[in-house]
């Protein structure tokens, strides 16, 4: 038991946080040593198992992230951008592997995460699932094989509570398409269309976002040519696929040197 890396889950009360906690408690490769929530949260000071409606597990929820990280070898973080950059600095201070599944990160957030990665291992990905990362790789290869006469559209759907759009996964797919095509995503990206927009610009990469109900995550990459279409699609029906990938990354990161990695590195694809 003592040889297993100790794990802290941030955002413990969230849907993803609770999924991570359940999987960590059942894991034979990691041991849950801490759960973090924001100051003032009603779970603070409670056993996380009881807070989740079950039996006690011997781990209390805290708002002292640094103290929790100091006892851990890995931190898994699906929270919000402002919290994640703070956690990155604290995880680096504790020399803990920081697995980041947070989306909606802006350039200023990414620069702070990059700075933290000089001192500790950071694994950051817009999506932690094996299937999605295979889809990213396929998207890049198909985009590289087709010329700009093939229009590229990325359509994503998520639950009604998701706050950012396009999703981190959609942006990963867009970047893969842009890389395959040898263009800048910033230059090619078109998000949302309304009103009289005129004809489509050749070479653009379009994004559409659907929000509703409890959709876990659906992504389509459409390559539309004259008289034919190629559609690559991934459907997630259980957010545990993301949690399993994140825990795999936490274990993988124990063997790496400080730096920033992604799930392609973890999966070796």
Description:
With 269 residues, the protein is α/β, with parallel strands linked by helices. The chain is 36% helix and 24% strand. The chain has 10 helices and 12 strands. It has helices at residues 15-26, 48-51, 65-70, 81-94, 107-116, 130-145, 168-181, 185-188, 240-252, 263-267, and strands spanning 6-10, 31-36, 61-62, 74-77, 97-100, 121-124, 151-158, 189-191, 205-211, 217-225, 228-236, 259-261. Strands 3-2-1-4-5-6-12 form a 7-stranded parallel sheet, sandwiched between helices. Strands 8-9-7-10-11 form a 5-stranded mixed sheet. It starts with 5 loop residues before the first strand and ends with a helix. The model has no long low-confidence stretch (mean pLDDT 96).
Structural key phrases:
alpha/beta, 36% helix, elongated
In short:
With 269 residues, this protein is α/β, with parallel strands linked by helices. It has ten helices and twelve strands.
Beta-strand fraction estimate: 15-25%
Overall strand count: 12
Indicate the radius of gyration in whole angstroms.
20 Å
Pattern of helices and strands: EHEHEHEHEHEHEHHEEEEHEH
| Termini Cα gap | 31 Å
Arithmetic mean of pLDDT: 96
Largest sheet: 7 strands, parallel
* Spatial order of strands in the largest sheet: 3-2-1-4-5-6-12
Structural class: alpha/beta
Low-confidence region ranges: none
Helix fraction bin: 25-40%
Shape annotation: elongated
Please count the helical segments.
10
